[in-house]
Design goal:
The protein is of the alpha+beta class and 421 residues long. Helices cover 18% and strands 19% of the residues. The strands form 3 sheets. The protein has a 6-stranded antiparallel sheet with strand order 3-4-14-13-9-10. Strands 5, 6, 7, 8, 11 and 12 form a 6-stranded antiparallel sheet that branches. Strands 1-2 form a two-stranded antiparallel sheet. The protein is globular. The N terminus and C terminus are likely disordered.
Length: 421
């Protein structure tokens, strides 16, 4: 994520409750939200002024994500190109519940003496991180990360223009009191204009993951558990700040998370990282499940600017909500949904959605077999962003949703919001 006010214009989505630009994808119906919008450099915004969060409250109508829409199935992206310089899949460094990464034929040997160069595949790497044969510098551990469980997978990549990867993720699974499984995916994007953004995102992802793995097996309501997890993530990031009161540039990040449990999909977020719903049946409509905490979304929702004008502004992607010691009136967004047919949830940073902004575009890029091959699908999405320019760090998790065990009589969503702690 780039500094507030300096992100590239042109990437945006309709904010809930505001008229969309001609030809724009219809925005989801709003649900209550309470995020406060007060960012450094953008004074004058009253505390508690929120952008409506998207949701499917009441009768979802024909545009709900489980309603069929006429039209042929869209083509899907091919598998990402093979890269002989791709670094080895690595552990995320702290997610004790994540599975070991899938084997990669192009992966470098384990760190330490005798490690094989990822470039020439022949020379050994010295203690300074350079190949003794070809002199190629070896990638850092966080430049490219992959994790896969049987029910979720995630990929994070440094991209092509950043000197380090400031994104983090955590994926895990646990058992609920009734013996059924719950799947968790957390994605965080460090704020580049803040200090130590890579540490902020790692701390937030780890804390949120741990909080959910502690709450869900006790039978906690998933929305309550997600709300508490975001607060735990915020506390972990705040703890990284210097002890000096009022210190500037405190570590900061955004967060988006998804929990699939008991036929319910629960989403939580702060910032501009997003979650998308993509049905297995691509004749049905895909939907974006989150609304950005951003300057452009705020202007559109308030009716102060049109969508095209707001997203053309240089301030469009300045975030108005984040985790960190200098965040104002933190209020996590949470919502839950009950889709009545299978699909996948895509949770990602703006390094991906900048290249597939609308739900329709995301569905076109996502492979048709995403539910069966989540890791491959995450790799395809990262490859799509790299092919588009890779101007930012790219992180995405793909979470399959099997749908209800039996047909659900009620096809309404169940969005919920929680008050500030």
């Amino acid at each position: 994520m780039t500094a507030p006010g300096w992100e590239e214009p042109g990437y945006g989505a309709p904010a809930g409750g505001a008229p969309a630009a001609p030809g724009a994808e219809p925005a989801p119906a709003p649900v209550p939200a309470g995020a406060a919008y007060s960012a450094p450099g953008y004074g004058g915004t009253p505390a508690g002024y929120g952008v409506p969060a998207p949701g499917w409250e009441g009768d979802p109508g024909p545009d709900a994500p489980w309603a069929s829409a006429a039209g042929p199935e869209e083509p899907h992206a091919a598998a990402p190109r093979e890269d002989p310089y791709a670094p080895a899949p690595q552990d995320t460094g702290g997610e004790a519940y994540a599975a070991a990464p899938q084997e990669d034929p192009y992966a470098a040997a384990p760190q330490g003496e005798g490690r094989t160069c990822v470039a020439c595949r022949a020379g050994h790497v010295d203690t300074d991180g350079y190949c003794e044969h070809c002199g190629h510098a070896q990638p850092r551990e966080r430049d490219h990360l992959e994790e896969e469980l049987c029910s979720v997978a995630a990929v994070s990549d440094r991209g092509l223009r950043h000197h380090r990867n400031e994104d983090s993720f955590a994926v895990s699974a646990t058992a609920l009191p009734d013996g059924s499984a719950a799947t968790v995916a957390i994605v965080c994007d460090g704020v580049s204009s803040a200090s130590r953004p890579d540490e902020a995102s790692a701390a937030a992802a780890g804390a949120a993951n741990e909080a959910l793995l502690e709450a869900l097996p006790r039978g906690a309501d998933p929305v309550e558990a997600m709300h508490g997890a975001i607060l735990a993530a915020a506390a972990a990031v705040t703890a990284l700040a210097p002890p000096t009161p009022g210190a500037q540039n405190a570590p900061a990040c955004t967060l988006v998370g998804a929990v699939v449990s008991g036929g319910v999909l629960t989403i939580g977020w702060v910032g501009d990282s997003r979650a998308y719903w993509v049905p297995d049946d691509r004749a049905a409509l895909a939907r974006r499940l989150t609304e950005d905490d951003s300057w452009a979304a705020q202007m559109v929702a308030a009716g102060l600017m049109g969508e095209a004008e707001a997203y053309a502004d240089i301030r469009a992607h300045a975030i108005t909500g984040w985790l960190g010691a200098d965040a104002y009136d933190l209020e996590p967004h949470t919502a839950s949904f009950r889709p009545d047919h299978p699909g996948v949830v895509v949770v990602c940073t703006d390094g991906l959605w900048n290249y597939a902004e609308s739900a329709r575009e995301m569905a076109q890029v996502l492979p048709a077999d995403a539910a069966d091959r989540p890791l491959h699908s995450a790799q395809v999405l990262v490859g799509h962003a790299l092919d588009g320019g890779g101007h930012d760090n790219i992180t995405v998790a793909v979470v399959p949703f099997a749908g209800p065990a039996q047909p659900h009589a009620q096809t309404e969503a169940e969005p919920q919001a929680r008050p500030r702690a």
